[in-house]
Design a protein that fits this description.
This protein has about 375 residues and is α/β, with parallel strands linked by helices. The protein is built from 11 helices and 12 strands. The strands form 3 sheets. It has a 5-stranded parallel sheet, with helices on both faces. It has a 5-stranded mixed sheet with strand order 8-9-10-12-11. It folds into 2 domains: about 130 residues, Response regulator (Rossmann fold, 3-Layer(aba) Sandwich); about 140 residues, Histidine kinase-like ATPase, C-terminal domain (Heat Shock Protein 90, 2-Layer Sandwich). The chain is about 55% helix and about 15% strand.
Length: about 375
């Protein structure tokens, strides 16, 4: 407030003075004049006049006597609060007890000054203005930060939705185009194999059929990872499918526990839970060297869907844990928040756990599961 080019140097400080004594008002003006603080001071002595001047928005700071006829400086402060006017407010009193001063500060008053310390008035005014401006700047920064975080969260949600839609589109194209073409080639090769009398040709047909079957398996696996049709059978079936696929791929035993054979949740919650389990199992295969067992707990008790994926590995270092949180699991945290849930990751020498919790609405309209889609079979 006192640096070169600051607002107080560009124009006088506009002061609203609530005081019933003209002598004390003159002393205030004299103290400000001696301090060489440029100012414009307006005197009021009633709450009605004080309210009207406040609402004009023409003042930078309030100086208020504590004892006034029929009301107090605290009453004036409450008027400012009722009007929701954010302005520095300084109690200027000839006799204010310590208890009253502490109470005033607790209520949000900027500062207080005894009238026999009038030589400090300019310093108190400038300090109150500086503190107020700093707080307002912080509030603006906090507001901008909150808006920025909200925009980032919305962007993350949009990206995740776009990714899921793109995955579904690619899976559909793999099934309809590539899968159909591979199935047709397989039929043609089978036809050739049945009619080929030459042993060398039979050997080539057999080799081609093996390669084709490998391509069919790879296409099906890619399609299942992109958008598993097993999701149409419900969350429990989808998590069990993930566990079985993980066992086949890694050789680690996966124990799946669930509160019931069917757990009905909204589609978006189901997708968040599925991707969380998928990401957690991927992290186990990357980071849990030495683990011999993986456990998945799926529970919808007490109105909360809980998914916990844990391993008995040596745990992750702080650096690895931060790295994991910074990438794959960070997106899952955002997705969990969008469905009203949260994600926790803990790691120790006894293993690592990823826990997703999502409160479930009491009367959620959960769509009925679809019939099994034929995407899982090309032939």
């Amino acid at each position: 407030m006192t640096g070169p080019g600051s607002e107080t140097e560009q124009r006088p400080v506009r002061i609203l003075h609530l005081e019933d004594s003209r002598v004390d008002h003159a002393l205030v003006k004299f103290a400000l004049q001696r301090s060489q603080l440029p100012n414009e001071i307006t005197l009021v002595d009633s709450l009605d006049d004080f309210r009207r001047e406040l609402q004009s928005g023409q003042h930078d700071i309030v100086l208020a006597d504590y004892h006034l006829p029929g009301f107090s400086g605290i009453d004036a402060w409450e008027v400012a609060r009722e009007l929701d006017i954010d302005i520095p407010f300084v109690i200027l009193s000839g006799a204010i007890g310590e208890t009253a001063a502490v109470d005033a500060m607790h209520r949000g008053v900027s500062d207080y000054l005894l009238k026999d310390s009038m030589h400090r008035l300019a310093h108190v005014v400038q300090r109150a203005l500086e503190v107020s401006e700093t707080r307002k700047a912080k509030d603006r920064a906090d507001s901008e930060l909150g808006e920025s975080r909200q925009r980032l969260a919305e962007l993350a949600e949009h990206l995740q939705t776009s990714i899921e839609q793109e995955r579904a589109d690619i899976a559909r194209e793999i099934h309809d185009d590539i899968g159909g073409a591979l199935a047709a080639v397989k039929l043609d090769l089978a036809w050739v194999g049945r009619r080929a009398a030459d042993a060398e040709m039979q050997r080539h047909v057999t080799s081609a059929m093996e390669m084709l079957q490998h391509a069919l398996g790879a296409s099906q696996r890619i399609m299942m990872n992109l958008r598993p049709p097993i999701l149409d059978q419900g969350l429990v079936a989808a998590v069990q499918w993930l566990a079985n696929a993980f066992e086949r791929r890694t050789g680690l035993r996966v124990a799946v526990r669930r509160s019931s054979e069917r757990i009905e949740v909204l589609r978006e919650v189901q997708l968040v839970a599925y991707r969380t389990a998928q990401e957690a199992l991927t992290n186990i295969s990357k980071h849990a060297q030495g683990a011999s067992q993986v456990e998945i707990d799926l529970n919808d008790g007490e109105g909360v869907l809980t998914l916990e994926v844990s391993d008995n590995g040596p745990g992750m270092s702080t650096g690895a844990l931060r790295k994991t949180k910074s990438f794959g699991l960070l997106g899952l945290r955002e997705r969990a928040q969008k469905v009203g849930g949260w994600l926790d990751v803990s790691s120790s020498s006894r293993g690592t756990s990823v826990i997703l919790s999502v409160p479930l609405p009491r009367t959620a309209e959960v769509p009925a599961p679809k019939e099994a889609h034929d995407q899982g079979d090309f032939v």
